[in-house]
Amino acid sequence: MAFDLICVRTQGASHIDDGLPCEDFGAVRKGAFYQVFALGDGHGDSNCPRSSLGSQWVCESALDALCSFAEDVRQDGSVPEAAADATDEAVEQEPVPAEEAPEPRRMRSKKMLIQDAVSIIGGEEGNADLTGREALLFDPQQAKMLMRQVAVSIVGDWTSRVNSHYAENPLTDEEWAGCSDRYKPRYQAGERIEHIYGTTLIAGLVTDTYALLLQQGDGRLCVFDALGDVSQPIPWDDRCFANVTTSMCDEDALASMRFCIWDLRSHPVVAVLAGSDGVEDAYFSPEQMHSFYREQLVYAARSSVAELQTKLQSELPAFSAGGSRDDVTICGIIDAEAVRPFVERYDMENAQVPIQLELSRIEERLPKMQGKMGYLQGNVTKAEKDYRATVAVRDPIAVRVQELRSDVSNVNSGAAEGFFSLRTLSALRGSLGQQQAKLEEDLKNAEADVARAKDAYERACKELEDYVALRNGLIAERDNYKEQLKALGASDDSFDNVFDGEARSGEAPETEPSVAPDPEPMPGFGPDVEAQPWTDVSVEPEFDDIGSRIHRLSRRFFNRG
After folding, report:
1. Are the C-beta atoms of residues 293 and 230 closer than 8 Å to each other?
2. 48: which residues sit within 8 A by CB, 6+ positions away?
């Protein structure tokens, strides 16, 4: 493999706006049989006013440590006595009283934390062809010891640098003014000085036989293997989320450093790329970030790594402004020749990513729509019930009004004068008139209630119909995206979980999430009011079929209002 180093960074758009320096740093170095890279992301916190220095020095400490490590393990012999002593001293801790014991997540010893944070990729084919102590890298127990040596070297050197600098350069008045009351007393007491220089770290050592990858804090390191696949093999620390990260300035910085040892003999790679969180935070998903890196690899394969470096240097300012607005650093190694066989595939996969993102959005939304569908159907049922109730109140009143109208008509006719005296007839007319006036008012109010109930029912039906149309439109859109993915060569299996595969931490999910059954389009719901005009004025106060649709009943109601 003919790897070329790449390292590029830019000041974040928000840092430019706020008058802050670039707090990222990246560095690379090439040895006789190895290449190393490192990036640090200084904390954007006024309590860490010298994080730009911290990120620079952690890169220098990492490069020094990894270069020394590469040369030491290739030689025969044992672990240097001084390094072994330093390792033992660094992990020794005073016992913690029970009442001061930390939260369960921190109950493990620092030694165990290091042991849990070393992953080994490969090493199955034996180590007869390795020289010196390189074979120990693929022995789990020996690898943990060697990684402790690396961690001690980096943390110790960086801590020494920042404390020496602070001893000669106390905080300026401007730096002091930016610190919060939480940290000022500790800084005054000479405590947590490392926090002033707080930074993360991602670094890698790549030789002809193995790669040693390490991380402290957030950011992402992606490995593109010789099969064209991408992974994030460094164990993830779940304390890193959103804007929260572990750091070189933490008291457990040594313990929480994570490692991956990758056997390049059995699992060759075409590229290893590390990016600060300014890259990751520009995207909604790991797959989008992977697509960005694939795009850069394709460019390098079609031109060169040197031209990619120039391209990124010119494009990253706009990338930051349009994305995370944070500082952005990318560094690592690329074998442009080895990438070339994957150019067509990477182009195809990158074309799929935006479609998969939209498909994922729809697949996530459709099951959630079921709840609202039920809610809207409940509204229709309630509105129909209320409508029936108002009609049931109105109909008897309407019947009685018609009867009174007939009675009044008869009383006012000449025929009634032969049956009643004038006095009785006058009283009867007055009584019927009062009853009619009251019932007419009651009928008017009942008709208004019916009109309101009818309007509420029709609105409920329309809302449900619109939501069904929206849902059916999403299903049609989903099916269209699936057809597009098929045309781009994606398999049907990829539609179930379009971003399935590598979890955000680089580890497979423990369980598959349960999802609702795949929804199918629903027919339109609710009466077609225009097709069933309310024209029948006959009165039938009894419902013949309580379960029938309300638009069928409408033919038996008054055409009022």
Report:
1. yes
2. 42, 54, 195, 196, 197, 198, 249
Q: How far apart are CA 553 and CA 395, in angstroms?
A: 13
Contact 26, 59 (CB under 8 A): yes
**Torsion, Cα of 534, 540, 545, 547 (10° steps):** 50
Query: Can you tell me the distance from the alpha carbon of 25 to that of 63, in angstroms, rounded to the nearest whole number?
Result: 13
Report H helices in 19-77: 51-74
* Closest CA relative to residue 122, chosen from 112, 137, 133: 137
222 strand-pairing partners = 273
- Structure tokens of 360? 């994922």
- The phi-psi region of residue 311 (left if phi > 0; otherwise alpha if psi is between -120 and 50; otherwise beta) is alpha
Q: Give the tens place of pLDDT for each residue, 243-259.
A: 889 999 999 999 899 99
| Cα–Cα nearest to 512, from 528, 499, 531 | 499
What are the strands of the beta sheet with 258-263, ordered from one edge?
24-30, 34-41, 201-207, 210-216, 258-263, 118-121
Closest CA to 199 of 10, 383, 327: 327
Residues written for the chain: 561
C-beta separation of 287 from 346 below 8 A: no
3-state secondary structure of 157: helix
Contact indicator for 327, 16 with CB cutoff of 8 Å: no
Quote the CA–CA distance of 186 and 176 in Å, as a whole number: 12
Instruction: Please tell me the distance from the alpha carbon of residue 103 to that of residue 541, in angstroms, as a whole number.
Output: 72
Q: Count Cβ neighbours within 10 Å for each residue of 420-450 and write b for 16 or more, e otherwise.
A: eeeeeeeeebeebeebbeebeebbeebbebb
Give me 153's structure tokens: 């070297």
The segments of the chain whose pLDDT lies below 70 read: 1, 76-116, 124-126, 128, 411, 413-429, 491-561
CATH classification code of 26-89+117-280: 3.60.40
> Model-level pTM?
0.71
pLDDT in tens, 46-61: 999 999 999 999 999 9
Question: Any bridge partners for residue 220, and if so which?
Answer: 275
Where exactly are the structural domains of the chain?
A: 26-89+117-280, 362-556
pLDDT one-digit tens code per residue, 89-101: 332 223 333 333 3
